[in-house]
TrEMBL record:
GO terms for molecular function: phosphoglycerate mutase activity. One of its GO terms (biological process) is glycolytic process. It is an enzyme of class 5 (isomerase). The keyword Isomerase applies. It comes from Maricaulis virginensis. It catalyses: (2R)-2-phosphoglycerate = (2R)-3-phosphoglycerate. The active site is at H9, E87. Its EC number is 5.4.2.11. The record marks H182 as: Transition state stabilizer. This is 2,3-bisphosphoglycerate-dependent phosphoglycerate mutase. The keyword Isomerase applies.
Amino acid sequence: MPQLALIRHGQSEWNLQNRFTGWVDVDLTDEGVAQARRSGELLAKAGFKPQRAYVSVLKRAIRTLNFTLEGLDRLWIPVEKSWRLNERHYGALAGLDKDETRAKHGADQVKIWRRSFDTPPPPVAEDHEFHPANDDRYADVPRELLPAAESLKLTLDRVEPYWTSEILPHLKKGETIAVAAHGNSLRALVKLLFRVGDAEIMEVEIPTGNPLLIDLAEDGTTILGARYLDESRAQPLPPLP
């Protein structure tokens, strides 16, 4: 039976600084590296043997995957990187301190930007350094697909086609797969897999560096079981569909 491990990157520098990050390419902290290494240890202990892996194009996820695969002694498996697995784009909030942003705009407004399903934050200007059109790694992505800001819904809209066309077919073949990505892109996958409602998905949290191991039936979509491997840092999971 196929297995799927969803791995949120370890703690990043801006997680630690309480700043909105999104598509900004910040690195892991020392704690984040330790979490990533622990991810590999936990998956190895669970007998997880991925045959391929997928990751965003942001270094905090890439390094997390590398440390995880190193712990599994599986650095040799095929790895595909895609911008479609990037974190949600936080637009003009990127780089801002979350507490200072609440003080400026009000807690209610910031909660809407952070927690509503379909309301994105203010967009970043096209000439801003944080607009993806000004980043070489997205040079081959059609400009009209590059976001200036995203809600969770818009994040889901870009993740779902990649899931359907690139990842799901391999699960349906019975392959075991690891995906290293981000809180919101992984929430999008959890929404698809667990068939979570629009309101309910906003309450789902994905802890950093704690693999969510999902046992799947032969169809690659029916969940037989799911668990966080570090029980001390586990978050509640949606009910099985």
